[in-house]
Structure formats: structure tokens, C-alpha cells
Amino acid sequence: MLSPNELNISKPVSAWNKAIKVEPRKFFVSLGKMVVEGVCQDWSDVGSAAVDALAALGVSKKPEELAWQLISRALFA
Fold first, then answer.
1. DSSP-assigned letters across all residues of 35-67
2. Which pLDDT tens digit goes with each residue over 20-52?
3. What are the contacts of 43-49 at 24+ separation with CB within 8 A?
4. pTM of the predicted structure, to 2 decimals
5. What is the dihedral angle through the alpha carbons of 48, 50, 56, 58, rounded to the nearest 10 degrees?
């Protein structure tokens, strides 16, 4: 867990400009779950498996980026 002194707030990088770091095992497990849930027509679980697949690609946001969004939205809301 990060201590408060280790969190450097940074502006989020666009999804188009992020480097993709694939974790093959997690990605293919998530992809398999998506296929199985799609065949079973359980659409809510397909969505959660898709989120897991994006996380395995390294596209999910880091805590530093989430902190930036939280502060900016609080200031401009």
C-alpha cells in the first residue's frame, strides 16, 4: 500500500497515448470468461470480464491519475 508521501499526483494520459503492457494469462482468462458469459447471454458478467481484460492490457488508470481526476472534479464542480 502506498503511504501518503509516495503518491505523486499526475495528469491522466489519454488512452490512445498509453503504452500497452499485456499480461497474457490474465488477458486470455478474461477473454475466455467474456466468450462463456456471452454464450450464456449473461450480459452483466460480460461487461465485468471486459473490464478485467482492459486491466490486463494495462489500460486501467493508476492511483495517481485517479487522484488528479478527483481533485480536478472537486475544484470545477
1. HHHHHTT-HHHHHHHHHHHHHHTT-SPPHHHHH
2. 888 899 999 999 999 999 999 888 889 889 888
3. none
4. 0.58
5. -110
